[in-house]
Write a structure and sequence with these properties.
Layout: E1 2-5, H1 7-14, H2 27-35, H3 49-72, E2 84-87, H4 89-98, H5 101-104, H6 109-120
Parallel strand pairs: 1-2
Helix pairs in contact: 1-3, 3-6
Length: 125
């Protein structure tokens, strides 16, 4: 499975604030930091961008592994994405912002990505 993210938009979504290293790894923390990011091409020039982008990439890899493991075991995976997909950071962030804050505080970034993938790429019968 391959993920394609437009560089400028990826930078805007996955840019971390200086407190990123102190993050508890909750989805709420991730969304809060992502919401502070200007949606422009220069956002990726910030050094903290790689931390938040890396956090999102790790979450996508974890969900991909869950999908592959479920398929191998003959179970229904949490989502059925295509082999290659384009990700709109604005749409992803809008989805994550739509999760109630009280719930985001108890979720990991992986949980949020799993929910997004399940809503966008549900497994059919």
């Amino acid at each position: 499975m391959r993920f394609v993210i437009a560089p400028a938009l990826a930078a805007a979504l996955f840019l971390a604030a200086p407190a990123a290293a102190q993050s508890g790894g909750t989805l709420e923390s991730f969304v809060t930091r992502a919401n502070r990011i200007p949606m422009n091409a220069t956002a990726m020039l910030r050094p903290d961008a790689h931390r938040l982008k890396g956090e999102a990439e790790r979450a996508f890899r974890a969900v991909h592994l869950e999908i592959r493991t479920a398929r191998t075991a003959g179970r229904t995976p949490p989502a059925c994405p295509p082999d290659s997909m384009e990700i709109s950071p604005r749409q992803l962030l809008a989805f994550l912002n739509g999760i109630p804050q009280s719930r985001r505080q108890r979720m990991s970034v992986t949980d949020g990505i799993r929910d997004w993938m399940a809503s966008r790429y549900p497994c059919t019968g």
